Amino acid sequence: MKFQCSACGLRVDSLHFKQKGLMNPKLTSICDICRQRGLAAEDYGNPVVKVFAANLLFTYVGTGQEVDEQNFLLGSAKLRKRYEGFLQDFDGNSLVQQQISREEVNRALVACETGVSGFVPDPGLTFAMNLEKMGLKVNFQLNEVDYIDRERIRAKYKYRCQYCGRRGRSVDHKDPVSLSQNNRLDNLILSCQECNRIKSNMPYDLFVKLNDEIPAINQQLVKYENALGPLKEEFQQRRRMLAAKVHLKGVVNDPELNAIRKSNKRLQDAIDSLEADYDALCLAREEHFANGWKLAIASKKTDII
Q1: For the chain, how far is it from start to end, CA to CA, in angstroms?
Q2: Average pLDDT estimate for 242-248
Q3: DSSP code of 167?
Q4: Rounded distance between C-alpha atoms, residue 241 and residue 260, angstroms
Q5: Cα 295 from Cα 292, distance rounded (Å)
Q6: Predicted structure pTM score
Q7: Nearest 5°: phi and psi at 2?
Q8: How many CB atoms lie within 10 A of CB 163?
């Protein structure tokens, strides 16, 4: 959820208003960016935050006065949107958070807001470009596994995905490289392209746990793959045979050729039906991982609840 800061006017995640307390957490009337610039939460009112603090048994730091939008440090709503978009990108990017602290980002944002840096976050630029222009250095290319090591991993696992059992060539980092920055061989495993994409930045232990819950589904996927490969090859051979007969006969419309075409069409329909079932199972499996990952994130969320 989001609160609006009574000082700068930014509407950002509630984590920006939360502080540790001696007994209970504190909720402040202004965001952490404004506190870092030296403003005192005690001088500002924020009735919405105050209500939440009271109901959640948090300490509220601020006055009971209404928010005065005329005195926002960022007076333009359009300008505030630019900062809010950048902060949302940062709050949701674990790779960047591993390399630069929230305090560093806050300092850079204050420099932007006060005109010191001469730059304002631009929604027309990528997140990486905005970071660079703000003087924040982040390495987005942490995967430094060379070709020889990749081939070594593929040979070690005989080109088989170690998660689902299908054929694979994707060298995957068990502990995501964006979090661990670990390119050692003991952190590498082989996966298919689909498992690699689904796992993404998910912790290895969680992915394995979720994967272990669906062994029958993984076995079905292997069977589908083993069936579809030969069937597609058979269909391609039939197409090549048809093309050769057309060439030899020198005609396109012929009873024998039409019979072959009908047979090929029935085979194609059967393959399409089987592939649709396969795709539906892949989608259901992906949703299983997505839901498990969402629940794991929700359980660790640093929001006010």
Answers
A1: 10
A2: 90
A3: B
A4: 9
A5: 5
A6: 0.74
A7: -125, 150
A8: 23
